[in-house]
Amino acid sequence: MTKSYRVAILGATGAVGTELLELLEQRNFPVSDLKLLASERSVGRTLQFKGENLPIESVSDRAFENVDLVLASAGGSTSKTWAAIAVEKGAVVIDNSSAFRMNPEVPLVVPEVNPQAAANHQGIIANPNCTTILMAVAVWPLHQVKSVQRIVAATYQSASGAGAKAMAEVKNQANAILQGHSPVAEVLPYPLAFNLFPHNSPLNDFGYCEEEMKMVNETRKIFGTQEIRITATCVRVPVLRAHSEAINLEFEEPFSPDEARDILSRSPGVKLLEDWESNYFPMPIEATGKDEVLVGRIRQDISHPHGLELWLCGDQIRKGAALNAVQIAELLVEKNLLKPAQVYVSR
Ligand SMILES: NC(=O)c1ccc[n+]([C@@H]2O[C@H](COP(=O)([O-])OP(=O)(O)OC[C@H]3O[C@@H](n4cnc5c(N)ncnc54)[C@H](OP(=O)(O)O)[C@@H]3O)[C@@H](O)[C@H]2O)c1
C-alpha cells in the first residue's frame, strides 16, 4: 500500500499557495489529510481540493500537530515564526521564503541540480528564489559539460513575483490608464502597467538589490561552488505571470551553440523553443502554466570566444516556487526522507 502523508500549506490563499494546492492534486501527491493555513484575514474562506471545500485556518502552534509535511509560502517573517515550531512538532518544512536559504544547516534544493542535498535536511529544506531556480535549471546542464566561469543575467520579472495582490494591482492600473485615470500603486512602489522599474528589494552598499544578490549567492550554494562570478540586474515588467531572463555565460573553453542546444534538448526541466526563421522564441505567455523552463536564442557571444548568450522564460509561480517545492516533497517520499528530523534547526 502507498504511504500517504498529512500535509499543511502555510500561505494557502496566496499566489504560490493556490498553485501548491493545484499541484498536489494534479500530481497526485499522496495526501491523507490537508490543512490550509493563512492569516486571520482568510478565516471563513474555503478552497477546493479534489472536489472538497476545505476551510482556511489561521496559523497557530496547534495547527502543526499531526502534520508530516508543511509547504510554507507565507513570507519570510511568517516562516521564521512558525517553521521551527512545525519541525519541533515532527513535520518537515519545505519553505518558499528567503528566511533559511543561506543558512548553512538548511539544504537549498533544485531537484534537477542538487537532489542529493535534500538528504541532509534537519527538518527544513529551502526552495530557492524564483529567478535563481529558472536560471539554475538551464545553466546547470551546460556547467556539467564545460565549467561556467561567469554569469551575467538580466531579468524581466512579472508582477505576480510580488504576490497575488501585485498581480491584481497591475490589472487595475491597466484598466485605470485605459480609461484615462491615473494608476494607483499601493502594493508595488510605482505603477507597473505600461511601465517597468528596477527590482524594488532593498539595496546594499554596492548598489545591488536583494533579488540580484539572491541570484549570486543562491546559485553558488545550489551549484556547490563559490568560484563562479555572477552579476545580475533584476527588473520588474508589466507581465502578469512568468519571468524572463537574458543570460550571458562565459565558459572555461569555447562552447558552440549547437553543442549547448544538444545538451539542453536532453536536460530535465528544460524545453528548447527556437524557430529562427519565424523569430519565434520563449515568451511569458508560452511559459505560463508550464512545468519546463523554456530556453531559446542560444547564440555565440560575439564579444568573447568562450561566451554563449541565451534567453529563457519560466513560470516563476510554478517551477520557480510551487512545483519545485512539490518536486522536493516527491523526492523526500521517494527516498524515504519525509520523517521527523533528528536534529532541530535553531530558531
Ligand atoms: N510569487 C512568486 O512568484 C514567488 C516565487 C518564489 C517564492 N515566493 C515566495 O513565496 C512566499 C509567498 O509568496 P506569494 O507570492 O504567494 O505571496 P501572496 O500572494 O502575497 O500570499 C501570501 C500568503 O501568506 C499568507 N500570510 C501572510 N501573512 C501571514 C501571517 N502573518 N500568518 C499566516 N499567513 C500569512 C497570506 O494569507 P492571507 O491571504 O490570509 O493574507 C497568503 O496566503 C513569499 O515568501 C515569496 O517570497 C513567491
**Mean pLDDT value:** 96
SSE pattern, N- to C-terminal: EHEEEEHEEHEHEHEEHEHEEH
Major sheet details: 7 strands, mixed
Number of helices: 8
Roughly how many Å apart are the termini? 37 Å
- CATH fold-level name of the largest domain: Dihydrodipicolinate Reductase, domain 2
The helix-and-strand class reads: alpha/beta
Shape: globular
Which percent band covers the strand fraction? 15-25%
Query: Over the alpha carbons, how many angstroms does the gyration radius reach?
Result: 20 Å
GO molecular function: aspartate-semialdehyde dehydrogenase activity; NAD binding; NADP binding; protein dimerization activity
Active site: 130 (acyl-thioester intermediate), 243 (proton acceptor)
Function: Catalyzes the NADPH-dependent formation of L-aspartate-semialdehyde (L-ASA) by the reductive dephosphorylation of L-aspartyl-4-phosphate.
Domain Semialdehyde dehydrogenase NAD-binding: 6-121
